[in-house]
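Re: the 234-residue chain
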Amino acid sequence: MSSSTWQQPMPPPAGGQRAAVLDHLIGRMLAFGPRRVRVAIDGFSAAGKTSLGHELAQRLADAERVVLRASLDDFKRPWNERHLFDRLSGEGYYRHAYDIDAARRLLLEPAAPDGSGRVVLCSVDPLTQVDHSTTAIEMPDDGVLIVDGVFALRRELNSFWDLRVWVRIDPELSVRRGRARDADREAGIEQAEALHRDRYLAAEILYVNEVDPVAIADVVIDNTDFDSPILQRP
């Protein structure tokens, strides 16, 4: 697990339809054989990306594979650089908030089958702003890296993934879930609504229109109903 303090809890054990979708994804990962595998879980904010990543990691660990978990939220540019760029508007957030070079250099390139294996799971903690970019762990030759985060399939990162998963929910559901999740942290419903609608959703719509990540994804899951997700591709 990443050393970041921005952590979400493990979801409860899955059953029924959700378990079947998880089993499908595990099968896709194991089909790569005993080599390093890099998995992207993308989708709108509050789509359930992190929970899905945790569930898959636990299942793979139960299958005796070493799993590394990371989030692109831990590879954002530090706030002390905010005077250098706009990251508050939707377009500014999409273009400038994430440190793409750090994600490639510290996380994705070392985790490649022919990479060094010295993987950094967190560059800058998004809450404390502590720099963890020199803290690396060894990824074994058959390890699996599962990374969740918005914009994971953007052009600068897309070539690094072995498996691309898009977690689909309606944009308005994204806002509602995000608002409920972040109301306390953002000091109120109105502030959380503005954050998710005016910054996150605006950025994600720009990303969808520019990149079309749904078309790029290998697997598309409708996660409207968390307990009963629908495997839409394949």
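Residues 16-170+213-227 form a domain with the Rossmann fold fold (CATH 3.40.50.300).
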